[in-house]
Design a protein that fits this description.
- With 888 residues, the chain is α+β, with helices and mostly antiparallel strands.
- The radius of gyration is 31 Å and the shape is globular.
- The relative contact order is 0.09.
């Protein structure tokens, strides 16, 4: 089976002529699926384009400890976590033309090497009791000229240099630098002013000094984002309030470990250190007289801990495929988990209390987890913890488990010790015993080596290794260095303006060159959507005519407001046609025909009828009630605009979407919608609160989802945030985003039902549409649907216990009518088949789903029974109406 391509793969390509040598290799830096071409970085720093069919993967050195991987021969199977790797490098010394010389060394360990720039971007460094991440490293470059003169081009001026032999040289900014000893350089602008204005170490400037040779490259300084301290742990606010200055001298720092993506790759420039130099800090190892070597080849083997508990040692890196996204219910042996789903709100399954355990294994096809549950902490008479005791082993559904937030560590994580006062205040301390608080002379920062029976094995900064309990440590910052750089750059800029500091801001770099790097957080959109500043419109709204329901050719956008990352886009390409509300038409009085009088809330007596659109008095539980403007401050024309929106909704709402507007708060609306048939949300009810800013319709409405703490869709967060390009919570183009005078509230609510609550919500995830139809996509899409189905059932229980005000009767009536079919679907999945006219049809349903359904179904049946019904809920699968298969 052909190995799938991944960015930063080392590949071999076959030249049309000549023998295959080291120059027939390249590093994959981009790939275009449409024409099946890829761009490769060659040994000499040049880029070449090749057809995918003409290359073969020979190594995958970018794999790192803590990375999730799957088998390249079974991409739809279980996944594992990398616990270790070994890389052997082939080094060569290049001549001035970029060709390899006879000086070649095989089988070199990275431990004996130092990069041209000793620190890579993202590296973890220590300064006394402070832990930080490297975000920028300005360089001083010494340039030697033909007459022996040497000048030092400082870190600010070095940005004005370029290669004189390879004008199109490319380098990966995390690990490599543009300059290295032996390289020929000249000024970017073609003049010699950069040399003339530099400090001359020997000799003096002459007009003929146009091209020189790099003699030495040194770090002029290091910009560090401080992420933890021995006193404050990882509490960011306290850390930032007392952190050292971000600009540091290299000799004041100690190297702890490299960033996850700082592996050795083809083309990396380095120095081969002597045995004596290897025993001192790589930051202090002087390399001016050492020859510059270049990585020409790599051979990486990997150790993997698989979900089923087996361990694989020395696997070829090309036999593995990295996984960038892990499902919420993908667990790994050694991880601590809790029983009782967060956000369930009705207690753990079977009425039990919160339990903490450790994963032994996971069956990825059945979605079942073998767990060892811990006993509550016990102590001996002397006050010492009696040790970690296992109460029992059990097999449970992955959907009934969550990662323990107090114990969330994994292989490769950089961790710091937690103060004893913090340990004692954690809920887990009552269930898992902890050792006595560490003495002050113990190392406080280290890296996770392994997980073992509820313990964490940590290799500390002093080289020692010990076992600790998970709640005794805290994971340090894991964000990409570009995100930290964006925040810290602002600090340093302000500091320089205020203090007239001559250090200077960090050198700029092109974050777009970071292959596969995350988006800059500065590009993130306001998750609340739109500008809420007062912006009274100049004229009344024009009459809306010939309104039709929108055609859905839209993009859904989502982005976790707590974690940066790329997003999928969704918008409406053919929206409702409407007049621009900003057009001045003072003679238009048609708004009077749009006014809909408020009605009292519908009572519980008599036949229940719930109109799709109605105007009532505002409920006390609306999310935006405290910030509501009551409409009067928006002005007459703004009121007309809102009432025209009401008219569009009244005339065009689908029968499964219900909207309530409010006479006393016309800037507020509430929306209820029924999950569509054939989706994991089928027959569920979903509620949204909307607020129209005073600048509406120049900006979209704000939307809040009643999640009850559940995350049942990539675009609907547990916090209530709704990410949709139409709400301008992410970038989009044209009608994908809100267009004043064209977009409408109808467009928003229809998009939420049809595009967000769809039949394959997993593919709403960022950039995952390309996985449709692939084994890797199917591996995630099916359990995502199963979990979404379970969360929809749990949402039903929440709604029956705490219905939104004004919708009590609607919720009861809906579940009276649909309860039997909801239960029929659940029982059909439990039995693995459904009755049909043509016989029995097998359903795709994991064992984990059945176990979870066994837990939730009795509560659901009891809740429906209390409502009264239009038939018996105590039915069997043989009497069920044929439910739609919603999981495949």
């Amino acid at each position: 089976m052909r190995t799938t391509l991944e960015l930063r793969d080392l590949v071999r390509f076959y030249p049309k002529r000549g023998n295959r040598t080291l120059v027939d290799r390249g590093l994959l830096v981009s790939y275009t699926g449409e024409d099946r071409t890829c761009t490769l970085l060659r040994l000499d720093g040049t880029l070449v384009t090749k057809k995918v069919d003409d290359i073969a993967v020979v190594d995958r050195s970018s794999i790192h400890v803590g990375q999730m991987v799957g088998s390249a021969s079974d991409v739809g199977g279980q996944i594992g976590v990398v616990t270790g790797f070994t890389t052997d490098l082939h080094l060569v010394q290049l001549n001035e033309r970029g060709g390899a010389t006879k000086n070649q060394i095989l089988g070199v360990s990275p431990a004996g090497l130092r990069r041209v720039r000793a620190l890579s971007l993202g590296d973890y460094v220590l300064s006394g009791s402070w832990l930080g991440r490297v975000v920028a490293v300005p360089l001083d470059v010494d340039v030697l000229f033909h007459d022996g003169a040497v000048c030092r081009v400082t870190h600010l001026e070095s940005q004005r240099l370029k290669s004189a032999t390879n004008k199109h040289a490319y380098h990966i900014p995390e690990t490599n630098v543009a300059f290295y000893p032996g390289e020929r350089v000249t000024a970017k602008d073609g003049s010699a002013t950069v040399f003339k204005g530099s400090r001359w170490l020997s000799g003096r400037w002459k007009p003929e000094h146009e091209i020189g040779t790099v003699a030495n490259v040194e770090m002029a300084g290091v910009f560090v984002y401080w992420i933890a301290s021995a006193q404050h742990g990882t509490k960011q606010q306290l850390v930032q309030e007392s952190a050292p200055p971000p600009y540091q001298q290299p000799d004041s720092l100690a190297y702890l470990c490299s960033a996850p993506d700082c592996s050795w790759r083809l083309g990396d420039r380095c120095f081969l250190l002597s045995d004596e130099q290897q025993h001192i800090s790589s930051l202090q190892a002087h390399s001016a007289l050492l020859p510059t070597m270049t990585v020409a080849n790599s051979n990486t083997t990997v150790d993997v801990l698989w979900q089923d508990g087996t361990r694989q040692y020395g696997a070829r890196s090309t036999s593995l495929s990295p996984y960038d996204f892990i499902m919420e219910h993908d667990f790994f042996p050694g991880q601590c988990v809790v029983y009782g789903v967060a956000g369930d709100g009705v207690g753990a399954a079977n009425g039990s209390t919160r339990r903490v355990g450790v994963v032994r294994s996971l069956n990825s096809k059945d979605q079942t987890v073998h767990v060892s549950w811990f006993k509550a902490a016990s102590t001996r008479p002397d006050g010492e913890a009696s040790g970690l005791e296992v109460e029992c082993d059990d097999t449970v559904s992955a959907y009934d488990l969550g990662r323990d937030p107090d114990h969330s560590v994994l292989h490769g994580d950089v961790v710091v010790r937690v103060l004893s006062s913090v340990i004692e205040s954690t809920p887990a301390a009552q269930q898992i015993p902890h050792a006595k608080s560490a003495s002050a002379d113990l190392p406080w920062v280290g890296r996770v080596v392994d997980l073992n029976d509820g313990h964490v094995q940590v290799k500390w900064s002093d080289g020692s290794t010990s076992l600790v309990f998970p709640h005794e440590i805290s994971v340090a910052n894991k964000e990409h260095y570009t995100q930290l750089y964006a925040e810290m750059y602002g600090w340093e800029w302000d500091e320089e303006e205020d203090d007239d500091d001559d250090v200077g801001a960090p050198p700029e770099f092109d974050a777009a060159n970071v292959v596969n790097g995350p988006h800059d957080p500065a590009d993130a959109r306001n998750i609340e959507g739109g500008d809420c500043s007062v912006n009274e419109l100049d004229g009344p709204a024009a009459t809306t005519q010939n309104v039709e329901a929108p055609t859905l050719v839209s993009t859904v956008s989502h982005e976790d407001p707590n974690v940066g990352g790329a997003v999928v886009e969704v918008g409406l390409a053919d929206p409702v046609e409407r007049s621009d509300a900003s057009v001045n038409d003072s003679n238009d009085d048609s708004v009077d025909d749009v006014v809909i009088k408020a009605k009292d809330a519908i009572g519980d007596d008599g036949p229940f009828k719930f109109p799709n659109f109605d105007v009532l008095k505002s409920p006390p539980d609306h999310h935006y009630l405290d910030t509501a403007d009551q409409g009067s401050s928006g002005g007459k024309e703004w009121v007309k605009t809102v009432q025209k929106e009401w008219k569009i909704l009244q005339d065009n709402l689908p029968e499964t979407i219900y909207v309530r507007a409010f006479e006393d708060h016309i800037d507020l609306l509430q929306v209820a919608m029924v999950g569509a048939s054939g989706t994991p949300y089928q027959d569920g009810l979903f509620f949204f609160d909307l607020q129209l800013p005073l600048s509406y319709p120049n900006v979209p409405p704000q939307v809040y989802y009643h999640s009850f703490g559940n995350r049942l869709n990539p675009n609907l967060y547990a916090s209530g945030t709704v990410c949709l390009s139409l709400l301008n919570t992410f970038d989009g183009e044209g009608t994908e985003v809100w267009v004043p005078g064209t977009s409408s509230l109808l467009q928003v609510v229809v998009s939420l039902q049809a595009l967000v609550l769809n039949d394959q919500p997993y593919y709403n995830e960022a950039n995952y549409e390309h996985l449709v139809g692939t084994p890797q996509g199917h591996r995630h899409a099916l359990p995502y649907n199963e979990n979404a189905f379970l969360l929809t059932l749990r949402t039903m229980l929440h709604l029956l216990r705490r219905p939104p005000r004004g919708f009590e009767g609607f919720i009861r009536d809906h579940f009276r009518r649909r309860g039997r079919y909801i239960l029929a679907t659940c029982e059909a999945y439990l039995q693995g088949c459904v009755p049909a006219d043509h016989g029995r049809m097998e359903l795709s349903c994991s064992t984990g789903l059945r176990i979870a359904l066994d837990n939730v179904l009795p509560r659901l049946r009891a809740a429906f029974t209390q409502l009264g019904d239009e038939g018996s809920y105590q039915c069997t699968a043989s009497s069920h109406q044929h439910p739609t298969n919603i999981l495949v």
